[in-house]
Write a structure and sequence with these properties.
The chain has one domain: Nucleoside Triphosphate Pyrophosphohydrolase (Alpha-Beta Complex), CATH 3.90.79. It is about 25% helix and about 35% strand. The chain has three helices and nine strands. The strands form three sheets. Strands 6-3-8-7 form a four-stranded mixed sheet, sandwiched between helices. Strands 5-4-9 form a three-stranded antiparallel sheet. The chain has a two-stranded antiparallel ribbon with strand order 1-2. The relative contact order is 0.20.
């Protein structure tokens, strides 16, 4: 069973942990990490989540395991969920935020990379049904049709704003 580190309201690690699925104690927080992978054609690698994980489209993400940093956590999640190795030096943290309601700190990463054949990626079937390259407009259309995971779409909007400013 996976353990997650707990943080205080200022994102200081407390030394306490909880198991995956446990309720986050009052006044404590966990970290959530996401990554948007964009290819040279401007499309994003999006996964269709397994029915067990709501079956919607989303980007790759999750929670760092106890002892992992945010960047180590996203590298682990991408490796586990879609079998892709990321170079930490190529990842850019484009957004960090905090949700009082969900009691999480968000770290959103971006990486520009081409993948020769996404059909050869090793998908974690408990989490991911399939992956595909989608344009910004296709992602927006999926959200309008309630086919895109809302939390990830909100982070996608942050990415679009960040990319527009670059």
């Amino acid at each position: 069973m996976e353990k997650r580190d707990l943080y205080d309201e200022k994102r200081n690690i407390t030394g306490e942990t909880i198991f995956k699925g446990d309720k986050i104690p009052e006044g404590k927080y966990i970290v959530v990490v996401l990554v948007f992978i964009q290819n040279s054609e401007g499309k994003f690698l999006i996964q269709k989540r397994s029915p067990k994980k709501n079956g919607k489209y989303a980007t790759t993400g999750g929670h760092p395991k106890s002892g992992e940093s945010s960047i180590q956590g996203i590298i682990t999640e991408v490796q586990e969920e879609i079998g892709l190795e990321l170079n930490p030096n190529d990842l850019q943290l484009y957004f960090s935020g905090k949700s009082e309601k969900e009691r999480v700190f968000w770290d959103d990463y971006y990486i520009k990379m081409d993948i020769n054949d996404i059909n050869k990626l090793k998908l974690q079937k408990e989490e991911v049904d399939s992956v595909e390259w989608l344009s910004k407009n296709e992602i927006m259309d999926f959200m309008a049709q309630d086919k895109f995971f809302k939390n990830h779409y909100e982070e996608f909007e942050n990415l679009v704003e960040w990319l527009d400013e670059k």
